[in-house]
Design goal:
Keywords: Signal. This protein has 2 domains: 129 residues, no CATH class; 40 residues. 36% of the residues lie in helices and 19% in strands. The chain is built from 5 helices and 11 strands; from the N terminus they run ααβββββββββββααα. α1 packs across α5.
Length: 188
Amino acid sequence: MLALSLLLCAAAGVNAVLDGKVETVRISDKEFICATDCTFRGAFLGQSGRICTEPKAIVRLDKDGKVDDEWYGTAFECPGEVQFDGHTTRERSGGETPLDCLVEKMNDPDFFRCTSSKGGDRRKVVDWADIEKELKLKTAEKKKRTQGGRNKCGKAAQEVYSECTRTGESQECEEKSRAFMESCLDGE
C-alpha cells in the first residue's frame, strides 16, 4: 500500500498544481498546442489532460499485452493513469518516443480551443510558463534529495524485497524492489 501511495505521489508531478485537466497550452499570444500525447520542450502532454516530464512517459498495452494505440491514436501516457479492461503499461523500449506537439497559430488570443475528442469533459487552457515553472520546481526538488532520503528509500525497498520473497520468486521481487526504490526517490 505504501508503494502504491509513493508511486501515485511521484506520478502526480505537474498535475497536482494543474489539476490534470490540461487540454490547451498557450505558448504565447500567437501560438498554442493541444495536449495530444505529444512532447514539447521536455514535457509530455497527455491526451487525458495529464502532464509529466517526457522521460517519464510510458507505453499503454491492451489486455492482450499489445501496444494500445486505438483509443487515442498513440500508446503513450503519464504514469498513474487509471487502466481499464485489463489494460497495463510498461516502460518504453527500442527507441519508442512520443511525437512532438504541433504548434498551432492562434487567430484570436481570446478565443481558441483544441478540438480533440475529450468526450465533453471541460478542460482548461494553461500557459506554458506555468507548466515550465512546475517542471523546473520538480527538477530542483529532485536535485535536493539528501543521503538520509536515499537511505530511507533503500531500507523501505529492502522491506518490499523481504516481504515479496516470502511468496514470490527472487527475480520478480528484485524487480519490485527496484521499481519501489525508483518511485520512492522520485517522490523525494
